[in-house]
Design a protein that fits this description.
Layout: H1 2-5, H2 27-39, H3 42-50, H4 53-71, H5 73-84, H6 88-98, H7 100-121, H8 123-129, H9 134-167, H10 180-203, H11 209-235, H12 242-252, H13 256-268, H14 291-312
Helix pairs in contact: 2-9, 3-7, 3-9, 4-5, 4-6, 4-9, 6-13, 7-9, 7-10, 7-11, 9-10, 10-11, 10-13, 10-14, 11-12, 13-14
Length: 320
Amino acid sequence: MSNATGPIADLSYRTYEGPLDPPTQRWKVIAKSNIMRVVKNKWYWVCLVASGWYYGFMMIILVFLDSMVSASPGQARQALEQLGGIEWAMQFLHGYSYGQHFILFAAMIAGTGAIANDNRTNALLVYLSKPCTKRDYLWGKWVGVFVPVLVAILIPALFFFAYGAMNYRSFGFIGDDPWLIFRVLAFSLVGAGFHASLVLGVSSMFNQGRMAGAAYVGAYFILYFVTVLIGVILSDAHGASRGMTSFTELLFYCSIGGLNMGMAKVFLDVDYGPIFVGAGRGSFEVDRPTPWIAIGLVVLLSALALRLVWRRVRAVEVVG
């Protein structure tokens, strides 16, 4: 009993001469906790695989064209012309476009409960009562959402890039645009950061992750359908002026999905078009927006969302 109530018997710590690192990277613990929660969710991996379905579809087409060249000499010229008519940067735009909804759900899984569930359980009292500042908390949460979303965007794109670089360099895969890999990295990083900022902003406004997820998905689809519907109606109007056409193109980018597409077009330096060059365009396919407007809006909305998070996150004890 005397040992239990007396001075500390083990004084070996006094001879410790190892590193004494200050707690300057507390955010890493928070980020790692959220990342581990996401990677354990099977639906996240379903979304990751599904977000790359267009890349898989395109690889099947390329394999089919290759087989035509080797197995049917009579159709070889047509197949080679089709392979030579592929605008490779456009394929990454299509891949990002057709995978957007699955990327949205990946962002929802990663971020809608990140702050909302902490609000529900009053976990902020625990976080902010320890040697953890609000900046540590928010940076950790943002990184914990950003990394899973970036992986969902980038892994399918890099897989397709590696496949193209190994098999289609003779058809201009890298030669036509040596900066293509950096363009892909750029829109992936900005797109993941945009989603992470917005979803955390929405999450900070709720006390339940499910409610935050419903709000984020609802805002995404409602804005998308309204802007596209109005744009299609106005663009198909008889005698529409050039000013009206410009307005409908600008309206297309007034949604989360549309702004993501505009940002990707700017970084990839392409307009929306067909799989193969010369195959024609649809009735409502708008050109890329002005770069400073597209990137500026993404940065502005992200900053506003993070400002909202900064104001909403505070340790408030509920006394009943």
